[in-house]
Amino acid sequence: MKGIAVGILALGLGLGLAQQAPLKIGVVVSATGPGASLGIPERNTLLLLEDQVNKRGGLAGRPVQFIIMDDASDTTQAVRAARKLIQEDQVLAIIGTTTTPATLAMIDPIAEAGVPNISLAANREIVAPMDDKRKWIFKTPQTEEQMSQPIVQDMKANNVKNVAYIGFNDAYGEGWAKAFEAAAKEAGLNVVASERFSRTDTSVTGQILRILSKNPDAVLIGGSGTAPVLPQRTLKERGYKGLIYQTHGVANPDFLRVGGDAVIGTRLPAGPILVFDQLPSGFPTKRVDQSYVQQYEAKYGIGSYSTFGGHAYDAWAILSAALERTLKKEQPTNLQAFRSTLRDEIEATKGVVGTHGIFNMSPQDHLGLKFNEAAVMVEVVKTPSGKLGWKLIRTFQ
């Protein structure tokens, strides 16, 4: 009888949840194309969270529905997806997209419609300078300014004097070039070469030869996903013996898989989740990192987690808390009023502990992360088992 009663209760709860109109959240990610190694864990994380939330009875008693669209790492498709989610699906908010160029392109239609957006891309220009458009845009990944600091500090510690840069020929690469060159100059480093390449290039020999002619002590590659393996492999094939740095845009298992031995010794800044099991016991995100990785790997396999799934996890942590506060003030039946109040509540985010740091947003800061909580320095190493992995070099606490 007890089992029957529990079953009836569960059925009743399920029926009650099903009768409520779902809270529709739009999601745009790069599940295919050059950004797929970033977008797939983002999508997987949100599918995992949607299932967990609804099994627990939804959010404030309402089911959550993520309407997920793949922009194929294409700017035009990202804009088209955003417009569909806004106009046809009538979503309350949008999470995404994955890459910087596509996110920047989405700002106009999102701002025009007055829909809050939490981006999963890195570039600082997504949220700054603050204006009437960017007031609708928030983000969870660390900026290139924040992540240039640990790179420059590590270069100084390794007696680097002359450095070269090669990055994507788009907003991500240009943002990194600007931020890194400024940080390097302030630290007294000489940037002796600055080259560009496309996410879809199959050869960068010319650019690498020009870099090698300057004999730099270190090279920073400004890219994301697996595409940055190409210039690193070319450097190694041409006999380069100096230090090679990458950005936090490569902190995923596919970079190791594609790069193989060519990426051993790579140094990069990353969110603390990448080396969650090596963090000191008092690190502020360690508990959340451990919990997320355990959940993700239970569903998708051991070793499958990445920092990019963590960005999606953090976006939902911020958005879900803001949704709960908004539902106490407005109802989704008044869509525009709800979206506007939700925007205000996201901006009021305080003390949300995510996988990448503690988020404290404000009208002037739509990221809300402190560098010392959101960045660690890591190195790619070969483990005793012969596999590639990430080794924590230092934290900045």
Strand-helix topology:
Blueprint: H1 2-19, E1 23-29, H2 36-55, E2 64-70, H3 75-87, E3 93-96, H4 100-113, E4 117-119, E5 137-139, H5 144-157, E6 162-168, H6 171-186, E7 190-197, H7 205-212, E8 218-222, H8 229-237, E9 243-246, H9 253-259, E10 267-270, H10 286-300, H11 307-327, H12 335-347, E11 352-353, E12 358-359, H13 371-374, E13 376-382, E14 388-395
Parallel strand pairs: 1-2, 1-3, 3-4, 4-5, 6-7, 6-8, 8-9
Antiparallel strand pairs: 10-13, 11-12, 13-14
Helix pairs in contact: 2-11, 3-4, 5-6, 11-12
Protein name: Leu/Ile/Val-binding protein
Organism: Meiothermus granaticius NBRC 107808
Keywords: Signal
Written description of the protein model:
It is built from 13 helices and 14 strands. It folds into two domains: 2-142 and 289-366, Rossmann fold; 144-270 and 375-395, Rossmann fold, CATH 3.40.50.2300. The protein is α/β, with parallel strands linked by helices and 397 residues long. α11 (307-327) packs across α12 (335-347). The protein is globular, with a radius of gyration of 22 Å. It has a five-stranded parallel sheet with strand order 2-1-3-4-5, sandwiched between helices. Strands 7-6-8-9 form a four-stranded parallel sheet, sandwiched between helices. The N and C termini lie far apart (56 Å).
Explain briefly what this protein structure is.
With 397 residues, the protein is α/β, with parallel strands linked by helices. It has helices spanning 2-19, 36-55, 75-87, 100-113, 144-157, 171-186, 205-212, 229-237, 253-259, 286-300, 307-327, 335-347, 371-374, and strands at 23-29, 64-70, 93-96, 117-119, 137-139, 162-168, 190-197, 218-222, 243-246, 267-270, 352-353, 358-359, 376-382, 388-395. The strands form four sheets. Strands 2-1-3-4-5 form a five-stranded parallel β-sheet, with helices on both faces.
